[in-house]
Structures are given as C-alpha cells and as structure tokens.
Amino acid sequence: MSPAQHTLLAAGEASQHRPLIITLFAVFVAATLVITVWAGRQTKDAADFYAGGRQFTGFQNGLAVSGDYMSAASFLGIAGAIALFGYDGFLYSIGFLVAWLVALLLVAEPLRNSGRYTMGDVLAYRMRQRPVRTAAGTSTIVVSIFYLLAQMAGAGVLVSLLLGITSDGGKIGIVALVGVLMIVYVTIGGMKGTTWVQMVKAVLLIAGALLLTFLVLLKFHFNVSDLLGSAADNSGKGAAFLEPGLKYGATGTTKLDFISLGIALVLGTAGLPHILIRFYTVPTAKAARKSVIWAIGLIGAFYLMTLALGFGAAALIKPDEIIASNKAGNTAAPLLALHLGGVDSNWGAILLATISAVAFATILAVVAGLTLASSSSFAHDIYANVIRKGQATEKQEIGAARWATVGIGAVSIVLGALARDLNVAGLVALAFAVAASANLPTILYSLFWKRFTTSGALWSIYGGLVTAVGLVLFSPVVSGKPTSMFPDVDFHWFPLENPGIISIPVGFLLGILGTYLSKEEPDAGKYAELEVRSLTGTGAH
Amino acid sequence: MATETPPPSNTQAQLPSTEEFVTVQESAEFGELRRSHRSFAFPLTIGFIAWYLLYVLLSNYADDFMGTQVVGNINVALVLGLAQFLTTFLIAWWYSRHAAAKLDPKAEAIKTRMEGGA
To answer: Inter-chain contact A87–B78, Cβ cutoff 8 Å?
Structure first.
C-alpha cells in the first residue's frame, strides 16, 4: 500500500469516529463559552475588559502567558518541522524560548509599572500622543494579523485531517468558524474570559504533550538514543537528520535565512503586543516577573516535549505519509497520536481525537488573545486617544473595542483562508520579525534612552514595519515558489523568507537617525516620570 | 480569586508632580537602583544573545563539529541545544534572585515615600 493510500485510510478511520471528535470539540467550545459568559458578567469597566481587573496571580498569569504563546505554531508547526527536517525543526523552539529572557530582564516589569492597557501606553508615554499612538496601534494590528493568519491556517489544516474534509470549501468553513468563536470570546468575555480560556488551554496542551511524550518514550523503553536512531533511520536521511542543515544548510542563501530567522525569534517575543498586554492582568511588577518565570518553566518544558513528539513522529511514521497529509508537516503531531494508539484501533482514533481537540483549543485560545490585543489597541490608542482626543467615555471605548473585534475577525478569516497551506511555524516567524523590527526598538529606547524623541519613535516604528512587511511581500513566502502563498505568479526579488536580518537593524537604526536628525528636544520631565515609574512602580495602575 | 497582594484601586491617589519625579530621578538613591538594574540586565542580555548567536552560527557553519557523537546517537548539536535551555532556566532564576535582593527593596522604598508624600 502506498503511503498516500495509507493516510487516506487513516483519515477514513478517523472520519468513522467523527462523532467522537466533534463531541470533544463541542465539549471544549461549550466549556469555554460558559467561562466567557461568566467572565462577561463580571466585566464592568475598562480595567476589566482590557486587563481582566488586574487581579490574576503571577502563577495564573504565567499559565495564561504560556497558553497565549504556545500556539499552533509550537504544537503543530515545530513537531511537524522536527518530523520532516529533524534537528533544524528544534532550532525554532530554542529561539522561541531564549527570547523570553529579553522580556524578563528588560520589558515585562517596566511595562507593567508604567502602562495601563496597551503597548501604546508605554511607547507614547513621553512622546506626542497622537502620532505615536497611531503608529503603535498600526503596528500592533499588523503584527497580530500576521500571527492570526498562522493560527487560522493551522485550524484549517487540522480539521481537514480530522473530519476527512478535503474540500477547500470545508477548510474555509472551519477557518470561518474559528473566526466567529474568537469574536464571541473577546466581545463578551474581554480579558477576563480570554485569560481563563488560555489557562484551561495551557493545562490541556501540557497534559496532551505529556501523554504523547510518555507514550513515545515508552515505545523506546525510555532510551532517547534509540528514539533518535530510529528517527534518523526511518527518515531515510541517516545521521544528517540529527544534525543542523537539512532545512537551512542547502546553500549560502538558506544559511543566511536561518540567521535571519534566529535573530527574529530571539528579539520578537518582547515586542509581541498580545504577550505584552498580559502583564497588565497582574497587580504588580513583581507578579509580572513571577508570570514570566512561570512561563519560561512551562514553555521550556513543553518545547522539550515537542522534541519527543517530532522525533517520535519521524521514527514511527513514514515521511511520505506525513507529507501526504500536509505538505508542511503541520499534522505530524495528530498523526503521531493515531499511530501510538494503533492505526486500526479505537484507541488510535480516541487519541487522535483528543490530541486534535487539544490543538483546536490551542488555536482558539491564541486567536482570542491576538484579537483582544489588536482590538484593545484600536479602541484605546487609535479611537480614544487619536480620533476622540481623550474625550471618549469608558463605555464608548469598550464599544469601539467590540466593533474592532468583529472587523479584525472578518479580515483574519479572509487572510487565513488564503494562507491555509503554509507551514504555521514559518508564518509565526514572520510575525516575530515584524514585532522585533517595529516594536522592540521603540520599547527599549523609550524606557532606557534619555535622548529618544517622537521623531525617533515614528521613524523606528514605521520604518521597521514597512521594511519588514515590504521584504516579506517580495520574498518567496508570497510568490515565486511552489510553496508560496501565490505559487502561480512571481514578483519576488528578496531571496530570504525571513526579513529579520535586514529589517531589525533598520528599525533600531532609524530610531537613532530619527532622533538625531530632527530638531526636536526630548521631554526631560516626562522621561523622569517614565523612568522613575518604570523602575519603582510609583503610581502604577 | 486569590491575589498575592491587594489589588490596587482604580481610583488611585494623585500622581506626584513632574518636579518631584525629576528630583527623585536625580537622587543618589534612584541612581543606585538604576545602576543595580542596568549593570545586571544589560551585560547579561548581551551575553545570552551572543551565546545564542554563537549557537546559531555553529549550527550553520560547523557541521562536522556539531555532528560529533557524544553518547550513542546524541551529538554535540543536541547537547548544545539543550545547553541553551539550561542557561535560559539558570538566567531566569538568577535574575529573580537578584531582583528580589537588590532591586525590590530599593524600588519599594522610593515608591512608598513618593506615594506617601504626594
């Protein structure tokens, strides 16, 4: 039997158990809707809607941060990348993890101390409000939409395997369903509901990964060396599978692409708006620190488990079968569950359904966080402070946030449908590159550089944003390759898939240039306020 | 819901004036807090980014070295990758100790005085 037939069989087997899978999905959705309605009833003012009332503990928020961060890219994307490219897939998780140190040492606590609801609060603190808030809002929405796209693509892919839906219409329908659910979570539950959904999801995801890791290791009698050896043999690539280079080592260009990716990953996290706003949900900077420490522990442990999942999939499933199921490897983890339980057994189907429900939960929790970040920024930065110049009431502001949620949901449904065949880890890496280019330089300069001015902030945010997005637009991600978003046309001239190596230095450099080339004087009094508040927590909301 | 500290009220006291902030910013006490934070966080950030980039470059350009077997099928690449995990955990732990011992008491003292005296 050819591997492709085998997969069809596996998918057929799964679709026989469609009622079970749909039941598990429905149970999760129902539970989260109950949480959402409950949280919605407790959401009275802006601090509730944007920051969940700031009453979560460091541990609770650490769990929610993990739930917000460990996306479909981590679970499906990294496991798939390891299953197909071996060691090179592991490189993602290292960058994703080390990046948390930037957030811990430089960003989380100052942000918590000096901001209220959005990233823009800190970026605009010492600057002219309207232009900087407009810029911060724009880059928040762009970064979040890139990230949303990746999650939507993951949802479409997952369900096509699970329910045996192979038609494009079916996949697009699933993307639309995810979009509608996230709109419901955010408009009704606000930050409180989103946080609880993320905590529940983090627990489910870690439990699911633990179960699969245990089953994989059990199969190899807890001998990691045997697991790696079988993965290398079964992959057909031998020892090279365990060494760097299968995905990125082909040519000088791909090696450069890898460096670019590495820089984007390590500098991106501390510039992701949906992560940053999570630090407003705890009462103090100390609790924000504690959240990051918990997140580092949980996320690190999870990535170590993805090693077992990825290499386990490589060892137990023929590579052709993984590719036949999804070109980019995104379904390797659910397929692994099926194989661990037994392809033709009920256990296989139950395990597949469980892991798929976990992945579905993962996607829903992350998209809710992303939508909340972008609609908060629209309402608080752009609507309240720019359009209404600070004259809007809290009620009007939250109303604007709810409408923005609907709009952003609609946009991401359309884009997600277009992106359904791209590797989700690769797409998320682009969001990291944009965040590191447009947001991180201004965050760091604002907090630590006395001389920094409004012009510097605007040059850096817009310059980093335009450079990063522009390079992606003219990269092989969008056109010119069979794996591109538009494979039939070719207008690419930038050779790398990840723009970070150019756009991040450009973002940092433009911040300096914009500051020195304008005649504007920095506002020394405002910097004194920001610096003292950010380090001491004086007057923290 | 349990909280670690009482939640701050949404209707808080008036923020100290800009002049007060400038005075504190120029004070020796705040200078020391700033130095304790920066002299720890800045070099460490440069250090772990350099260590991470070294790892990225080795993965790219030192195939033979990275492929060297250590034990069984476990090679240098995997060991170095796991070492990145380990150093991340260690730095997080180290920073939280430093912050609790050197930063929190100073920050707390300044905050209490500014909010109390406002």
So the answer is: yes
Tell me which chain A residues have a C-beta less than 8 angstroms from the C-beta of B27.
none
CB contact under 8 A, B88 and A262: no
Put simply, whether A23 touches B (Cβ < 8 Å) is no
H helix intervals, A345-423: 346-377, 394-418
Of B40, B44, B73, the CB nearest to A229: B73
pLDDT for A73-129, tens place per residue?
Answer: 778 889 999 999 999 888 889 999 999 999 999 999 999 999 999 999 999 999 999
Nearest Cβ partner for A105 among B10, B84, B95: B95
Residue B30's closest chain A neighbor by CA? A532
Give the closest residue to A76 by CA, choosing from A325, A350, A298, A266. A325
- Of B3, B24, B44, B26, nearest to A537 by C-alpha is B24
In eight-state DSSP terms, residue A314 is H
DSSP, res A125: T
Closest CA to A424 of A358, A332, A494, A343: A332
Q: Determine, for residues B111 and A537 on separate chains, whether the beta-carbon distance falls below 8 Å.
A: yes
Q: Which two tokens stand for residue A213?
A: 């890791």
Both structure tokens of A361 = 């939960």
- Span A440-457, average pLDDT: 97
Q: What are phi and psi of A486, to 5 degrees?
A: -120, 85
Q: Which helix (H) or strand (E) holds B100?
A: none
For the ranges A262-271, A448-457, B9-18, B33-42, the lowest mean pLDDT is seen at B9-18
pLDDT value for A507: 98
Q: Is the ipTM of this complex over 0.95?
A: no
The reply to whether A296 touches chain B by the CB within 8 Å rule is yes
